[in-house]
Each structure stands twice: as C-alpha cells, then as structure tokens.
Amino acid sequence: MAAQNLQSVPDQPAAPGAAAPAADQGQAQLEAEGQAYFDRVISEDSRIEPRDWMPAAYRKTLLRQISQHAHSEIIGMQPEANWISRAPSLKRKAILMAKVQDEAGHGLYLYSAAETLGQSRDQMMDDLIAGKARYSSIFNYPALTWADMGAIGWLVDGAAICNQVPLCRASYGPYGRAMVRICKEESFHQRQGFEILLELSNGTPAQKQMAQDAVNRWYAPALMMFGPPDDDSPNSKQSTAWNIKRFSNDELRSRFVGMMVEQVRVLGLTLPDSEVRFNEDTRKWEHGPLDWNEFKEVLAGRGPCNSQRLERRRQAHDDGAWVREAAAAYAHKQSMKTKEFAA
Ligand code: BYC
C-alpha cells in the first residue's frame, strides 16, 4: 500500500492578503486526507509506517506502550544479572548471560521503534531514571534463589510470549516487526526457564522444594503482568480499535493460565492456585483472585524492589557516561573527516 505522508501532499498556494486562513484550510485538508488514509489502513488491518499521517493520540499511545515495554526489557535485566556470578555451572552461566544480553537487545529494538515516533532515546531514558516512566510491575519483585531463574524464564517469559505474539500484528510497522524478533528469542528464554525448573524438580527433595517455592512466589505477579482486569483497563478499548492490542488483558491472562496448567504437570510441580479451572460454558480458563491492591502499590513505586531497581539503573547510566561521550566524540571526528573529504 502506498504510504500517505504529510510531505507528499502539495502545499496550497496562499491567496494574497489571506495567508492565515488559506494556510489553515490547507492544514485542515491535510489532516482530513491523513485521517481518511489512516482509517482505511486500520480498517484493512494493514500497517501504519513512521512517515504516514497518524492521529496525535495514536502516536502518544504507541510511544507510551513501546517506551514502557523498552524500559521493562532494560530493567528486567537486573533480577537475572544478579544471578550470573552465582549460576551453578559454566553452562548455566553462559546461557543466563546470553539471555540477559538478549533483553538488552530487545530494549534497543524497542527504543529504536519508539524513536520513529519522534521522541529521543535520551529523553526516554531521562524519564525512566527520573521515575516518571512505567516499566512492568513484575521486575519489582526479588529473585531470591537460583530457582527464581527458572520461574522467571518459565512464568515471566511465558507471560511475555502470550502477550507479545499478538503484538507481532500490531498496526504500527516498526513495533510489529520488532516484536517478531523479540518473540523468537523469548521462546528460547522460556524453554531455558522450564528446563531449570525441570532439573530442580527431578533433583533432591530440597531442590524440588526450591523450585516449588519460586513458582509459588512468581505465579501471581506473572498473572498481573497482563495488566488490570478489563473493567479497570482505561486504554484497552482505544488500543484495540487501533489494532495495537488484539486481545484483552483478561483474555490473555486466561490463555496463559491454560498453558501453565499443562506445563506444570510435566514439571511435576503445582500452581499455587486451587481455583484454577476450565469453564465449559465460557470455554475459558479461570483462576483465583489476584491482589490488585498490591499491583497498584507496585505501580505507585512502592513494590518490594522499585527503589533498588531505579537506583541501579541510575548508577548504570552514570557509569556509562564515559562510553556515551567517547562514542559522540568518535562520531564527531568521523563526520569531520567525511566533510573534509567532500570539500
Ligand atoms: N506493569 O489500560 P491498561 C518482559 C499500566 S518485558 C506496569 O490495561 P494497556 C521481559 C498501563 O501502562 C514485559 N504497568 O494499559 C523482559 C497503564 O498505565 P498508563 C513488558 C502496567 O497499555 C525482561 C495502566 O496500568 N511487556 O517480558 O492497554 C526479562 C492501565 O492499564 C502493567 C510489555 O510491555 C504492568 N504489568 O495494557 C524477561 C508488553 N499493566 O500508561 C521478560 C507491551 C498495566 O496509562 N505492553 N499497566 O499510565 C502491553 O501489552 C500493554 O501495555 C499492557 C497494558 C498489557 C502491559
């Protein structure tokens, strides 16, 4: 489909003495044409690209969601990086390092996708370290034992896959394409988590107990990753109408529970939820109540690890200042060389 962008619409000639109204009219016409193009793309379930006209609210929603997602990937490195030096074998260490590096890569794809909407990565990072931006609630919980690496991989990455596979079809091109790459890597992450738990579950009674304890602690926070219940989700309706979200928060949560029910049997462990059942009437999986007050507290910055996560992020940002300065100096030198060569 041919892209409709603002630059491609010819300027309206301004009538002498009536410059302002003509400019207004031209602008109004541009907006109307842009809106018509946007509506058609959305109704055809096609893609909006960065140079296309888009409503300001669509841009804002995408920036909100993609930047929050990018921050989640970067902050999400912390609970796992904390265990790299304590991994039980060289093989486990290598796998965990690769996974944490993948998360950094996911952050970079997503910051790049967000930048196409007109906000700089520096600004997004400043918002994060100033505590103004959100990131996923899940990363405000502590990773207490090695088994938590298994539970994070299996439950947290499992929830991420469930939520993110539909985002591969998001209407904004750069976001959807970034999600395709991310989801491939998330599958490996979930398998490595599953495999850690399986090994512990088949180990000594103490190891099996450690795996069960980790699953018990990460289960409810993982379910809350999908966001508030549909009735309390202010953004869902519009995001669904714009083909950003494809399924509701509750719908995805229910699917996730169904996936976990099957897999936990293979693990030889149990879900800490006696109310999990398949409702034959609705054809949906149901789970026990979640503590949405706890969720709100975490979002308000009062979770178990919120301040620790942000403090670590700030420190890493400060520690990396010399790298950014060196990269900027190198880029400047290169551009001077190019100019000299061209002159
Ligand atoms: N945590 O109207 P709603 C990963 C906020 S990374 C914090 O339903 P929406 C991984 C929401 O932002 C996982 N905040 O919102 C990384 C909104 O607040 P604002 C990250 C949450 O956007 C490393 C308010 O609550 N995944 O898996 O329609 C290692 C109302 O919610 C949360 C993504 O970011 C939460 N859990 O739906 C391992 C996926 N839930 O902005 C693993 C992309 C809700 O209005 N994002 N809020 O102030 C999405 O799919 C959607 O943004 C959400 C929320 C489903 C999360």
Topology of helices and strands:
Blueprint: H1 19-43, H2 56-75, H3 77-81, H4 90-115, H5 121-129, H6 147-164, H7 173-201, H8 205-224, H9 236-241, H10 249-267, E1 277-279, E2 284-286, H11 292-299, H12 306-319, H13 321-342
Antiparallel strand pairs: 1-2
The structure holds benzoyl coenzyme A.
The site of benzoyl coenzyme A has 29 residues, from helix 2, helix 6 and helix 9.
In short:
The chain has helices at about 20-45, 55-75, 75-80, 90-115, 120-130, 145-165, 175-200, 205-225, 235-240, 250-265, 290-300, 305-320, 320-340, and strands at about 275-280, 285. The protein is an all-alpha fold and about 350 residues long.
Folded structure, characterized:
One of its GO terms (cellular component) is cytosol. It comes from Arthrobacter globiformis (strain ATCC 8010 / DSM 20124 / JCM 1332 / NBRC 12137 / NCIMB 8907 / NRRL B-2979 / 168). This is Putative phenylacetate-CoA oxygenase subunit PaaA. One of its GO terms (biological process) is phenylacetate catabolic process. Pfam families: PaaA_PaaC (PF05138). This protein has 343 residues and is mostly helical. The protein has a single domain (39-292), classed as Up-down Bundle (Ferritin). Helix content is 64%, strand content 2%. It is built from 13 helices and 2 strands. It has helices at 19-43, 56-75, 77-81, 90-115, 121-129, 147-164, 173-201, 205-224, 236-241, 249-267, 292-299, 306-319, 321-342; strands at residues 277-279, 284-286. The chain has a two-stranded antiparallel sheet with strand order 1-2. β1 (277-279) and β2 (284-286) form a beta hairpin. α6 packs antiparallel against α7 (173-201), α6 runs parallel beside α8 (205-224) and α6 (147-164) runs antiparallel to α10 (249-267). The longest helix is centred in the middle third of the chain and has 29 residues, at 173-201. Mean pLDDT is 93; it is low at 1-18. The chain binds benzoyl coenzyme A. Benzoyl coenzyme A binds at residues 64-65, 68-69, 72-73, 76, 103, 134, 136-137, 156-157, 160, 163-164, 224-228, 233-236, 239, 245, 249, 299.
